[in-house]
Design brief:
Elements (H helix, E strand, L loop, with lengths): L10 H8 L4 H14 L2 H5 L4 H13 L6 H6 L7 H6 L1 H14 L2 E5 L4 H7 L4 E5 L9 H11 L10 E6 L5 E7 L2 E5 L8 E5 L22 E5 L1 H9 L3
Parallel strand pairs: 1-2, 3-6
Antiparallel strand pairs: 3-4, 4-5, 6-7
Length: 235
Amino acid sequence: GAVRANDDFDFFACLNHNYREFLFGFDDWVTSIAAAGDADAYRSKFSYDETRSMWQSLGFGPNYKAAYCMAVCPAGDDVIGAYMADKQAWRREVVEPFKDKVEPVYVASGSRAERVARRNPNKRLRYIDYRVDVSTPDNFELGLRHRFEARRAGGVTCSVAFEFPSGSIRVAVVNDDGLSIGDPTDETPDCVVRLAGADYIAVIHPNPEPTDVDVPRYELVGDPAAFGALLACLD
């Protein structure tokens, strides 16, 4: 979605997709390796292609990903003839393979790039603004939205209220429409999860190497099965 039909160029869509292979994304990658603990845990998060892509960027520079845009653009004396002769063949042979390639796409929450990538089932959304080690209400909500997997939620109906140490409350509801998160209503939720501690984000994104397993991160009031049902919908 970075290149648009009206000639506007979304610089941040391009930057965000490449962020992981710039220096500031490289820092995150190193942290992910250190936090994984072992090879299996690392591979459960990053594919072989992502790791090889990172290595290629370290050796050449992340700008090589512009090859996608360059490959499908028919501008230029050496390619314009084939495009003009058969545009459908050009799309089928040059454009579609990139569109159909199964791969991750790094986006920011709520961006146009997210909406464009979501329309393509071959692209796996990776969010650059959710931090697995930051315990704030906003980041907690992002984690719920980004880790929610609709395929796991078939037939699930539950409502869970999260009470943060700051006192704010957000209610997560799972039903046939998917996941919705909002302010408390007059309806009583199935359960209330009162979050505690400095790392309560681990409630929805457990640390593979917890250092304080004996420290409770929440107190649950109500039906624990509802909370379990919500957690089971997270990928």
